[in-house]
Amino acid sequence: MTSSGPWARAAARNNAEWCAALCRAHGLGAGTFGDLAWTHPRRTPPYYPDAVTLAPGAAPHDVLAGIDRAVPGASVKDSFATLDLTGHGFAPLFDARWIHRPADAPAPPLTGAAPWEPVRTAAELAAWEAAWSDGAPLDLFRPALLADPATTVLAGRAPDGGIVAGAVVSRGTAPDVVGLSNVFGTDPWPGCLAAVSRLWPGTPVVGYEHGDDLTAALRHGFTATGPLRVWVSQG
Fold first, then answer.
1. According to a count of CB atoms within 10 Å of the terminal CB, is the N or C end of the chain lower?
2. Is the CB of residue 107 less than 8 Å from the CB of residue 30?
3. Residues 6+ apart with CB under 8 A from 148
């Protein structure tokens, strides 16, 4: 696949819809989807972009006109690494790769670990976030997500029942894919992918990773499908 191939486009759309879902859970509204980009007119929650490009033909004005640049911290997910925002007061934060795992890829074998299961309650979600953030109180993943039919928070547990691993699964309008994000834990991929295979059988999986997390994803059957870059405002 090229950087603008169908799997990269599907992953970008799925990721933008997950960003919109998180914004809805914070009471901010879903933002605006256009042909070239998703944008949000209000500052989005921490770690989440104010805009995500949906096609490689997006230009700076397609994203910057729809976001709040007056409040510090604006960020843009350049899904195809085609934008140059340096002349608009932005600098690259990090580069990553979209990833894709085919529907017919076998789930990695589990070796005695308990199956991952969806988080069902607000208390479980708080425990999941504490594990994800190493205990930092962020109030990022809010209970409204549990009522979103397109979002599933998965948890892997230790023998004592404590949450030690997890991921978010997004199922938006991008055709026939599930998106994975916020994957955490020690060697989380076998449990995560086994749960996805069980809950959404025969469905391709997309997402993005970088660094050691990308290496681990590729080792578990993913293919890198194209580059992305996150830009952050320097103002």
1. C
2. no
3. 21, 24, 25
For residue 100, list its beta bridge partners: 206, 223
* Residue 217 parent element (H or E): helix 211-219
Q: Quote the tokens at residue 142.
A: 């809010």
Write the DSSP symbol of residue 193.
H
Span 96-129, pLDDT tens digits: 999 999 999 987 777 667 889 999 999 999 999 9
State how far the Cα of 124 lies from the Cα of 120, in Å rounded to an integer: 7
- 123 Cβ neighbours under 8 A, 6+ residues apart: none
In this prediction, residue 76 has a pLDDT band, given cuts at 50, 70 and 90, of very high
CATH T-level assignment (fold) for domain 101-224: Aminopeptidase (3.40.630)
Helix ranges restricted to H, 36-188: 60-64, 122-132
- Provide the 3-class DSSP secondary structure of residue 49: coil
Kindly give the interhelix angle for 189-199 and 211-219, rounded to the nearest 10 degrees: 60
